[in-house]
Structures are given as C-alpha cells and as structure tokens.
Fold this sequence. Notes:
The chain is mostly beta strands. It has helices spanning 39-45, 105-108, 323-326, 331-335, and strands at residues 13-15, 23-25, 30-33, 52-55, 58-61, 64-66, 74-77, 85-89, 112-114, 120-122, 125-128, 146-149, 153-156, 159-161, 167-170, 179-183, 186-189, 194-196, 199-203, 206-209, 220-225, 235-238, 241-244, 251-254, 268-272, 275-276, 299-303. The model is unreliable at 7-21 (pLDDT under 50).
Amino acid sequence: MRRRTLLAAGAGLFAAGVATPASATGARRVLHVRPGGSVQAAVDAVDGPGWTIVVHPGTYREVVDVPADKAELTLRGASRDPRDTVIVYNNANGTQKPDGSGTYGTAGSATFTSAAPGLTVRDLTLANDWLRADHPDITGTQAVASCTYGDRTHFDNVRLLAHQDTVFVETTALTSFDRQYFHRCYIEGDVDFVFGRATAVFEECHFHTLQRDVTFTPKGMVFAPSTARANPHGILALRSRITSGAEDAAYKLARPWVPSYETTAWPSLVVRDTRIGPGIDPVAPYTNMREAYPWQTMRFREYRNSGPGAAIPVPENRPQLTREQAESHTKATYLGDWCPRA
C-alpha cells in the first residue's frame, strides 16, 4: 500500500520543528504560520478568544492540540484550496509514546485535537498517514486525523484523510450534547472512519471509502456512532455523496459503537438526501460491532437517498424515515440555536 500524496504538486515539505515563529498582524488578532514554522506554536501564542491563525501553503508535519481556553479560534489555510495546506502526522493507537509511558490510544493518536468551543477550521487538510502495512507488529491500528470535542465546532472545505477512525466527533462529557458541523468536506478512510457520540451534521460532504489489500468483506464501514442514550440527535449526513475506491458492495454504511466504558450508548445515525455509490452493500448496509448490541436495536434510519448503494432490495435491512419523521432530522433541529456561517 502506497502512502498517499497529501500535497498538491509543486509545494514543498517543511518540518514543523524549525524555530520560525508565527507572525502577528496588528490589532486584528491574526497570527500567520509560514513554511518552517509551527501551527502548534501559533496555538500556544493565542492568549484569549477570537483569534485567527492563517496557515500558508506547505506541509506541516506535527501534532496540533487546541485546549479549551482557546475559545472561538479560527484556523484556516491561506488559500481557498485545502490541498495547498496540509497538517499531518503518523501516530496510531498502538504507537509507543517516546517517554515509554505506554501507547497513544485512539484519541491520543489524532494529528489534530481540539477541546475549544466555537472552533472554526477551513480550507486546509488534516491527515494521519500511518499505514498498517508499515507496522505489522501493531494491532491497535486506529489512526485519527481529527478528534474534536467542544460545542459549536465548525469545519468548512476541509480534507480529512486517514484509514481507520479518520474523524472522531466526541463530546466533553456523556451528559454534554456538543454540536459539530461539517460543510463541503472531503473525508476518506476504511474502518469506522466517521465515529463518536457528538451531535454531528455533515452537509454537502463527500465520503470516500478506500481500497484495502484484504480478501474479506466487508472491508470497512463509513459510520460508527456512539450517541448517548439521552441525546435525541447523533450523526446526520444530508445532501452528501458516498463513493468508493473498492469493488461494489465491499463496504457497509455503518455499524453501532457501544464502548465498553459506556454501555448505555444508543447509537443514532440518519443518512438522507444523499447519493450512495455502488461501493456500499445495498442488501445488508449495516452490521454489528458486537453481537450483544445488534444494529436493529439502534437508531439507524435513511430518507430519500439515491444511487445504486441506496437500493432497497430487503426493506427490513434499511429502515426508512417517514416524511413526518424526517422533519425532526434536519440541520436546524440538530444544531438548535447555533447557525454556523458557511
């Protein structure tokens, strides 16, 4: 398996460790990060809410962690093309930490992590380029590109690239129904590559399943929600599309994730008004992660989807919303009083 090309042709690769400081711009509370600089250093320099960090074209190989006290932060690429600006690293769940204290775990493997409320990320790429084939000794193969928990998290025109567990939409606590909104994003992966318990809306997004060098099917699943039982809203995908680099019917649309540390979870997923390509198995689009928690007992529904992967040859295998029920599964109902600007 070849490591993916993350940067558009002609751009250089720059190490984040070079000590070039971010530059601030006047009273507008803007920091600029240029090739040779560090995105994390710019995050560390933010001293209050409402800052903007502009990252100029280049590849920044580093881990970025935005703490909760950096509220209302905007992180954006300097150009409108998200391929120009790439933040990438290669930790996995089973990767040993340099200090010998153990492995990173799934959440700890993330290239980009944020606990900040009101975060906006736009016009760049977040990637984890760890590959299973390069590390046959590691069994914890989850390698997260983005892990966000914090209310009002907004991604717009962002590429999110990894293999297993690409996008982790998490919440600050089991009782916190933190909201996240993804607009015009491109998301690729293979196993459970959009997962977590947040109230997460994906609008006009492109989900792409990767080819895997394995002989079994399913080769993976797009969604793995772990919604808290008390939360009426989990993951919502609308007006999106799902394509595949694998053969027809090699992937499942979803499976429920009921974590061993949170067995009260009641996963919720609605996919509506979305074109589903032939890579998704139309006969049995859902499967179980654990037999103790069958998908049929979860809140999995679809509405007005199209494409070969949305066919309904076995109706009991893909529950549909009625028109009246669909009125409760919209961007507005999920996000409530929060109206993120596109």
